[in-house]
Amino acid sequence: MADYQLPRTDGEARRLAIQSELLAEATETTLVAAGVARATSCIDIGCGTGDVMVAIAQRAPTARIVGLDLDTRPARARHGDRFELVTGDLFSASGAFDFVFSRYMLHHMADPAAAIAKMWELTEPGGTLAVVDIDQRGTTTYPLWEPYNKLEGHIRGLYERLGIDNFIGHKLPHLFERAGVGAPDGTEVIGVIRKVSELREFLPLLLDMVRDKLVANGVATTDEMRLLAADLATAGDQTSSYCYRPTAVGVWKQKPR
Ligand SMILES: C[S@@+](CC[C@H](N)C(=O)[O-])C[C@H]1O[C@@H](n2cnc3c(N)ncnc32)[C@H](O)[C@@H]1O
User: Fold this and answer.
1) 3-state helix, strand, coil in the chain (%, to 5)
2) Structural domain span for residue 22
3) What's 242's domain CATH number?
4) Is residue 69 within 6 Å of ligand 1 at its C-beta?
5) What is the pTM for the complete model shown?
6) Tens digits of residue pLDDT in 243-254
7) 70 lines ligand 1 (CB under 6 A)
8) Is residue 2 part of a domain?
9) pLDDT, tens only, 194-211
10) How many folded domains does the chain comprise?
């Protein structure tokens, strides 16, 4: 059973929506390379705000698309005959789909190989499993803007303590093999660079996402959080520093018929 660590607030839904924009290229590239255009029955596992369901719908003109999540409220705005929302846990899911997709969920899983094996079970013969997930290691700013690097350092420390693997991106091909899926048919590694000032709304939301947990887990003090929040609030002034965001890794495999 899942133990999802992030908050379920309007701010977090907004953060996921901005993150979705940052991940749009990686998502689109992986969907297209994995052959989503051929899909007729899709499931987006851990659908969050449902942005990926819309991306799938745009590229798979006749597909029916299920969005599965422990909490489907952020995706309720997704209307249309082709969409169906299912509230539940991946590990209890059933059905057979010719396109199974999941973005930025595996790094929250205590046993990501077991999650991939379960996704493969939901993939019908001839269908494709595709995932996109994060590799946080390279993220930085240039010229260095300390508040960003401090925030990402705190997130790294927290996630290590919580057992969330934010470096999972480069491990995905091996995890496909370990899950019994086999070596992927293809991989994509996609990075994003934005001016820090363009991230002025995103960065405070990112801090909000982890602030209480950072303090509760002894990674940072309340005073440090207050100072960091004040620094991050000036992100809009950082018009000459560029942020290299964590890379997104896409991996996919077609199941033999
Ligand atoms: C970081 S969010 C990513 C959301 C979305 N895929 C995106 O990329 O915008 C991870 C999502 O996975 C969901 N989730 C976590 N564990 C799950 C599980 N065991 N079964 C179904 N959904 C799960 C969470 O509720 C959350 O919405």
Assistant:
1) 45, 25, 35
2) 10-254
3) 3.40.50.150
4) yes
5) 0.94
6) 999 999 999 999
7) yes
8) no
9) 999 999 999 999 999 999
10) 1
